[in-house]
Amino acid sequence: MSMLPQLLSAGVVSGCIYALVALGLVVVFKATGVINFAHGSTILIGAYIGVTAVRSVGLPYPVAFAAAVVVAAAIGWISYAAVYKRLLGAPHMIQVLATLAVANILSGAATLTWGSESYGFPPSARMRPIMTEPVVVTGQQALIVVGALIVMIALTAYFRYGRSGKAMRALAENQVGAGLCGIRTDRVFAISITLSGALGAIAGVLYAPLTLVDPSFGWLLIKGFAAAAVGGLTSLPGAVVGGIVLGLCESLWVAALPALWAPSLSYVLIIIVLLIKPTGLFGTSAVQKL
Amino acid sequence: MIDLPRGVLLGLAAVAVGSISTPARAQNAPGVTDTTIRIAVADALSGAYSQYGVPSLNGVKYVFDKVNQAGGLFGRKLEVVSEDDGCSPKQAVGVATKLASEKSVLAVLGLTCSSAAVAVRDTIAPTTPIPFISFSSGGHTSSSAALGGLKPNFYFIATSVHAQGGALVNFAVNQLKPTRVAFIGQTDVYGKEGRQGVEAMLASYGLKLVADETMEPRGTDASAQVLKLKAANPDVVIAFLYQVPAQTLLRQADELGFRAKIITSASVTDSSIYTSLQPSALENYYGGMLARDVLTGPLMKPLMTSLQTQFPGVTFNPLVASGIGAGEVIVAALRRVGKDVTAEKLVAELDRTRDMATSALSYPVTFTPDNHMGGRGLHIYEIRNGVEMSAMPGYWPGTEKAAGPAIVKD
User: Fold this and answer.
1) Which residues of B are less than 8 Å from A121 in CB distance?
2) CATH of the domain at A31
3) Among A161, A239, A277, B122, which one is most buried in terms of CB atoms within 10 A?
4) What class has domain B29-159+297-375?
5) Do the Cβ atoms of B223 and A129 come within 8 Å?
6) Within-domain flag for A127
7) Alpha-carbon gap, residue B286 to B291, rounded angstroms
8) DSSP string spanning A20-78?
9) ∠ CA A57-A62-A66 to the nearest 5 degrees?
C-alpha cells in the first residue's frame, strides 16, 4: 500500500477534528468578536459526559452523543447567564479574560467530577475499518468527516437564512447599528455561547472514541484555534479548510521529517498565512476587533 | 532548705537533664518528638496530574499505618504530612522551602514529576539535612555524579527512564528474539532519555535501531509513524509514550495491519488503554511496570485489597508501588537508626540500603553514597483476553545486560 493516500486520509480526519473545534470558536467570534477560551473546557466536558454515558450508564453511542450535546449547550447557556451577561458592555479584552476564567472553572469542575484518570470508550464495530482499499478508514473516522461537513453546512445555512443567525452577523459587523435595528445583544451572545457549547460536545464526542479522555483532552482548543486562524476567524468554510490544511500538513510533514518538527512547521505555516493575509484565508476584517 | 537524700538528688538531676535534653534532641531532628516522627509526602495531589501523586501518597500512609498498628518505631508513631506540589517546579520548591524552614518533617517523599524533583534537588536539598526520596523516573541523569546530580540527601526510588529502556531491550532480545528493533518515543525529554537507554543496551547486543520515530504527547494521529515503522519491517517496537499516544499507536498499528510486537515503558499506568482497544490491537503488546505484578495478580492483589479497604475513594494504579517502596525503605532505615534519630543518621542509614525487597516494587532497592538511583528494572506484563497478566515472574534488569528476569527474594 502506498503511503501517500493513507497519509492524505489521516490528514483529512485530523483536519476535520480540528475543524469541528474551530467551528465552535468561529460561531462565538462571528457573533460577538470574542475568542472563547472556555471552548476547550466544553469540549472536555462533552467528551467526559459522552464516555460516562456509554461506559458507566450503558447508553448507546447516539444517545450519549445527544446527552453530551444537550448538557454542554446548557453549560454554555449557564456560563452566559452567570458571567458573560454581566459583561456585555465591557471591552472585548475583559470578555476574553472572562472566557479564560470560565475555562478554568469548568476544567476544575471536570477534574473534581471525573478525577485525573483516563476514560476510554469501549471498542465497537464503529472502530473497525469500513474500507481497506485504497486506504484504511474506520467507521468512526468516516463519522468525524461526515459530522464536520454536516455541522459546517448547517451552520452556514443558519447564518445565511436563520433570523438569529443573521442577527449574529449584524451584531458582529456593527454593534451599535444592530442595536438600533432592534437586535438584542444579550440574546445573540447567549445563543452563540450556547451553540458553541453544543459544537464543543459534538467535537469531543466524535473524537473521543479514537483516544482517551483525560484532563488534557481540552488541548484540542489549540489546534482548533490554529485552524480558525488559518481559515479566518469569521468564516465557517474557512474553519473547515483551515482544519484540513493543518491536518494534512501535520500528516505529510511527519512522513517526510521527524515528528519533532511537525508542530513547529504547522505553526510556521500559520504565521506565514497570517503575515500574507492577516484575516486568514477566508476571513473578513472583523478580526481587527481583537 | 529541704534536706534530700543523695539518691533522690541524683534522680532529680537526671530528670532535669532529661527534660532539657529532650527538646534539644527534638531541635536536632526536625519533625521528631518523643511520640511522633513526621514525614512529608509532597506530590501532585490535585488537578490534572493527581493520578501520579494520590496513589503513592496512600501507599506511604498504608505502610506507616501498618507500622503504627504494630506499636510504632521506638515508641514513636509515624505521621504523614501531605503537601500538593501540583507537578510544578515552582510550587514544589515553595512546599519544600516551607517544610525545610519550619523543620517540621524528618524527610520528604514524593516529587513524582521530574521537573519538580530536579528543582527541589538543586534549590532546597542543599540547604537542609533532611533526606528527599523522589518517585520520579529521572534518576539516571538527575542522580548522576558525572552530571552533578548526585546530592548527599536526594534519592530516587523508581527505575529511571534510561534503565527502563535497558530493561525493555533485555526482555525483548532474550524473550522475543528479534533481529530488527525499532523505537518510537515522545518529542520530549521522556522520549529522548528512553531512546538513549534503548540504544545503549541494544549496542551491548550488537544491535542498532532500524527505525526511530517520534510522536507528540497529545497527537491525534500516528498513521505516518506507523507506516514508516511498517516500512522498516521491525520484529519489535519499543515505545516510550504516555498513555494517550500509546493508545493511539496501538490502535492505529492494528488498523493499518502492523503486526510487530510493541512494548511500552512504565508510563502506561491505567487499564483504560486496554478496555478502549480491540482485542486484536493487544495481541502483540507487552508493557513494563515498576510493580512486582499487575494489580490484580496474585503478588499484588492482597495488598491492593487492603489498600482499597483502607482508602475506598482512591483509584489506584501501578504507581502506588513507588509510595509503598519508599515508605518501606525509609521505615527500614529508621529502624536501623534506632531511638536517637536525626536527619543525618537517617541519610547515613538510607545509604546503607542494600538489595532491600519491598512488598510492591519488582526490584530490590539499593542506595549507596555513590548511587542514589534505587530502581533497577521492570516487570513485564501482557494482555490476555482483555485482562492484564504478568508475562513472567521477576524483573528485567535495566542497568546491565541480563539473559533472564531476576527474582526478588521476600
Assistant:
1) 276
2) 1.10.3470
3) A239
4) alpha beta
5) no
6) no
7) 15
8) HHHHHHHHHHHHHS---TTHHHHHHHHHHHHHHHHHTS---HHHHHHHHHHHHHHHHHH
9) 85
Give the torsion sign (CA, B4, B10, B13, B15). negative
**ipTM at complex level:** 0.89
| Least confident window among A259-268, B218-227, B282-291, B300-309 | A259-268
Chain B neighbors of A254, CB-CB under 8 A:
224-225
Nearest to A17 among B48, B220, B278 (CB): B220
Half-sphere exposure of residue A168: CA atoms within 13 angstroms, side-chain side: 27
Asked, for residue A125, whether it belongs to a domain, the answer is: no
Residues of B in contact with A48 (CB under 8 A): none
Say if B29-159+297-375 and B162-289+378-397 have the same CATH topology.
yes
Beta bridge partners of B238: B183, B263
Residue with cell 471591552: A91
Encode chain A (290 residues) as per-residue pLDDT tens digits: 578 999 999 999 999 999 999 999 999 988 888 899 999 999 999 999 999 999 999 999 999 999 999 999 999 999 999 998 888 878 888 988 999 999 999 999 998 899 888 899 999 998 899 998 889 999 999 999 999 999 989 998 998 898 888 888 787 777 778 778 888 888 888 999 999 999 999 999 999 999 999 998 998 999 999 999 999 888 888 999 999 999 998 888 888 877 677 767 777 877 888 888 888 888 776 544 44
Report yes or no on A178 lying in a domain.
Answer: yes
Judge whether A126 lies within some domain: no
- Bridge-based pairing state of the strands B236-240 and B261-264: parallel
